[in-house]
Each structure stands twice: as C-alpha cells, then as structure tokens.
Amino acid sequence: MKTTPFSVAIDGSSDTGKEKMNPLTIRTYDDSRGIVHTQFLDMCMSSDATAEGIFSKMQEALDKHEISWNNCVGISLDNTSVNMGCHNSIRTRVVGANPAAYILGCPCHIVHNIASKANEAFEQVSHFNVEEMVVDLFYWFDKSTKRKANLDRYCSFCDTNYREIVKHVSTRWLSLGRAVDRALQQYEALKSYFGSQSESVSRFARLQVMFSAPLTELYLLFYQAALQVFLHFNMFLQREDPLIPIIHKQIASFLTKLATKFLLVSTIKAAKGDFCSMSYKDSAKQLSDDDIFIGLITRQRLNKLFREGDLSPTEKSKFLKSVRAFYIRAMEYSIANLPLNDDLLRNAAFVHIPSREDARFTQVEYFVSRFNHLLPYHSPQELEQLSEEFSMYQLIEDNEIPQGIWDTATVKEDDGKCYYRMDILWHFLSTLKMPDGSHCFGKLTKVAKLVLVIPHSNAEEERVFSMVRKNKTAFRPSLDPKGTLSSLLTIKLANTEPAHRFEPPEEVLKGAKSATTEYNNIHSKT
Question: Which of 13, 257, 452, 493 has the most C-beta neighbours closer than 10 Å?
Fold first, then answer.
C-alpha cells in the first residue's frame, strides 16, 4: 500500500454508545495470490460523527501505517450527506487529499432506494403500504406461541406448510422480497386466520381489513414479481470479486429490464441506450393495461377476480394505475441517481477479458492520464509500447489461456450461472513472457490491476458489520473494538477459507502452546 494502488472503504455503525465504530478496510491486489483482496486496517472509533471527526480518524490510521493518500485510487462510501455531500463531507476531504481518487456512492443503497421510492409512488395511488403490512404481520405473531399455534392449525386446514413469518427491516436490502414471499406462501391460511379470529388490538384490526380485501393478494403478487429485477441487480452488486469493468454495462442492463416492464419496445429502441432522453412518462409511449408487466400469476388472479365480480372496474383501474406509478417513479429515481454517464465506469470496460475485442485504447489512456503518478507512462516510447501490448491483448485467443486458469477463475452461482474473476485472469496475463524474457503485458497489466482495485459497492463494509455483530454479542458486550475485536476482524478478513479448513502453521501452534503454559504458570501463582 505504500508503493502500490489501493482503495479504502468505511461505514459508520448505528450503535448508541459513547463512540461509534467506523471500520476502515483496504482493498489491494495481492500478487502472491493473484486476487483482489480486502484487509481490515482500523476500527476508527469516534465520538464525533461529523465528516471532520471521521476523516481525522481515517487520517490517523493511515499515518500510523505510513500510508499516503497519493496511492489511493478509490473510496467506497454509503450515500449519506456526511459521506457524499458536495461541500463538507468525507468525499470533499478525500478529493482534497487526492483529486484523482474515484469516489463511489454505494449502488446497493441506490437500488434499495429506487425500490423504496417506487413503493411510495405505488402507495400514493393505491393507499396500500406493503412494508407496513409485512412489519405488522411479523410483530403480530412474534413472541406469541399461542398465535403461532393457531396459525399452524389454519395452515393444516388449508393444506399449507406452516413457516415462520419473515421479519422485514427497511434498511436491509433484500428483506422485503423474502417477507412478501413468505406471506404469499401461506396467504390462504393467514386470510382464514384473520377472518376467523377476534381481537381488539389495532394491529390486528389493520391486518384483518387487509386480508379481507381482494386487492391485497394482488398487491403482494405484484410486488413478488416486480421486485425481482431489483433483487437480482442488488445481488449482483454484492459480489465479492472486482466488478468495476462491467458495472456500467450492468446498470444499462438493469434500466433496460426496468423499461421493458412498462414501455413499448419502439420507445426503448428509439432511445438507443440514452435513458435520459427516453420519454418514459408519456402514456403514448407506454404499454397498455393489458400488456404492462405485473407477473403472470398476478395477471391470472386479476382476470379471475374481475371475471367473477370480486373486483370492480374502478378497483382494477386503481391497481393498474398504481403499477404504472411504481414503474415511472422507479425509472425516474434510477436515472437521477445511478452513475449512467460515469467516465471511469465506461472506460474500465477494457479490463473485462471476454469483451476485449470491443475495447479501445483510449480507455487505457484515460487511466494513465488520471492516475499518472501511479502509471508513469508519459514518453512517446512508453505509450507506444503500451499501445502494442493492448493490441496483443485484443488479439489473444481464449485457448491461449490454459483451461486450468479458466477453471480457477470460474465462480458458480446458486442458479447455475457462471462468471469469471477478472483478477485471476489478469494475474495469469501478467506472467506471460516474450521469447526475449520480457513480459508480454508488463505495462497493461499494471493498468488493469489498478482498475480492479477500485471498489464497485460498499457491500464489503456491510459484511464487516455482520462479522462485528457475530463477535460482539450481548454475551460479550465489553469486547474491545480497538483490541480483541479488531484483531478478530483482521484474522477473518485475511483468511478467505472457512474456519474449519484453516490449518495454522506448526510454529504458530508451538507459540500458542508456549503462551498458554506461560499464562497458566503466572496465574497459578497469584
């Protein structure tokens, strides 16, 4: 980090103690393992939650390890004003320390906010708030064995398996989809339960009214279908491997998928990828009520209720207007907040090896110009050599990369899809040599490795907080954040393998035994 590019990420805890935890992590390219790796640097405890207070702790941590901001190529923050404000924030202070550093607001938070804003628009028309419903549902059954037992009986009567109601937390990115799914899995049982029970509690009364309305099931079915595009994109953004080369393309893909839900194909084609110019609010450019996406099951249920007279024309129209408002607001917020025209994201695409033939040398030049202190290729001869390496990179065939390297770089997802880790593939390219012994891609790989270090989201910090919660529990409330807790986080982030696979070196075991013996001897005498 003292001589190589790195990026940093920081996020503040929501605890109410005297000092807040602000874990600071460092992202570097580990040449020994050939991967981009995140390491824990410091907890940055601060009682001052201002940008000045937090940044001063960050500066102390870097100074302690003699790390300069000059080598920082990026910083990942969530989207609060303290972090990303235009005038007095951590962002402005980092830019002051290193103007070249790329500062990215977390797209995971943005996608979550897109769904939240769309939900608000849906509620304004329908007067149905899905978040309030699933929260009420969870707390009605939470901590009541009697109510859960009653629901279990209704599930048996409705030939449905009983399952615990899922808790939805508005700040958690993916919890709403799971909460809606669980409610729909036992919807008939819940409907029978609230239709048959009698309680004077206001929460019960609200739920009873909701489950008695035919539109409620339609609303939940719509959310189950509509939220998928947000959930899939958010899951993609939470991946641990470096995604910066394909973020720009994936954002465009997300907006295209969102547009297809409610816009005519001709409208999408006419925009030619320029979403800012898309006439998405013009009703003449939108799909009809019969074609707008609400989900196949939702459409079947809507038609059945309307055909059987359980849904009036007014109610049907209200539902479809709510759906339209949902999509329009989602598109509006997406265009306003996602980095659609970000130069760095657009130019980072050359690092994506499967798309190398579509890359341009100007994309490489962008990074050489922006990070000229880390990529000192200024002379005509150096630029010419870099251009030649880029041409060789574009011409290389897939079969010139051994199958074993492709296999090592392959990551399989739960749904069976596969993708490749670019850091592993670029590490292989960095080892290739010419007949004279010089590296084939000596300069180009340095540019690529710098790009891969740039963070694509703040998900890594959220994973650190998950580690904090698992270690600093109600049974261990006094765990020192700057001592034992920081040491545990350092070890956990440094070792990517699961704990049960970790085999400590023999010298470490001997040292641990000696320390234990010494400790026991000292305390046995007191």
Answer: 452
